[in-house]
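Morning run. Coffee first, then this:
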Amino acid sequence: MRIAVVTETFPPEINGVALTVQNVVEHLAALGHEVLLTRPEQPGATAVALPGGVREFRVRGAALPRYPGLRFGWPAGAALRDLWRTQRPDAAYVATEGPLGWSALNVANAFGIPVATGFHTRFDEFVGHYGAGVLTPLAFAWMRRFHNRGQATLVPTRELQRFLEARGFRNVRHLARAVDTRQFHPVQRSEAVRAQWGLAPGQLAVIHVGRIAAEKNLALLARAFHAIQAVRPDARCIVVGDGPALPALRARHPEFLFAGLRRGDDLAAHFASGDLFLFPSLTETFGNVTLEAMASGVATVAFDYGAAREHLRDGHSGAAVPFADEDAFVHAAVELATHDDLRRRCAIAALDTVRGLSQRAVAETLVRILSESVAVLGRVA
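And here it is:
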């Protein structure tokens, strides 16, 4: 198939959506499909290498207000019409709901091209963290209108599928997430990295990886770590990532070690060199970092939704605590921090849990959903 992929974010930007779309593009190409990738320009950024079978088309974009480091694409209907007239895709996957995504939906519908949309981000929840909570119902209605214009809305968990179906989203399909278990693996554990953190052998490394932003509930990270420190004074908290809230977090918590933005094998080494991963976010659509921590053989504490609901068995492969129960989160973090044998057993079980998750299988499922959409649209026509 010739598959158009349209996204407002793509590496070298570092966020869950960008990396998920990159994996989809690479594995579609590996399966022998022709991929037409459309995304915004990223001034000053070094483009990532794309595999054979992928052709990239860049359009105008701009920085996302109040969220430095992320961009959105301006409307590009004319450019997409010109491109898809000469290189008509069999189907399209629109990964983001910004102006570029709307343009892609409009052109696909006008041309009769089947399109699946990706539900990656709970924008309706995000607006409340940036002083615009009154817009939450409008944001949700806007998202529903966007996704219902495609032939399928792809979501990473059964939980989210049921949630959206109950609220008027049509043709919601489950598209699982995977993790690169060759890159994220305990073999990446590095005493050199731990030495950079100032840790002696046996000292507890509590790690958090993700964008440093208001919606990530980082006050709970600090609360849980301080509770750990009360019983494990040797513990150190390492924060990996960047984002708009980093300066405030750094000023508020000088006791944290800030390791900055990490990529590739360097990121994998930082994951695997930790002993306990804390993920206090309440706004994830999925939470790729949960799988990356599990694949790295690191015991994990997260709220019981998204990736944790799908893959983290409470008390067996980590701690999946009731949603928004901050006391339970802190208690679970302290339990794993203070019981070394339990923490090690959870780490081994987590590694076994994610071993069979295949990125190739995810791409194959996407192709099957797009093929079904082609068939359905053909019958309607």
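The mean pLDDT is 91. Good start to the day.
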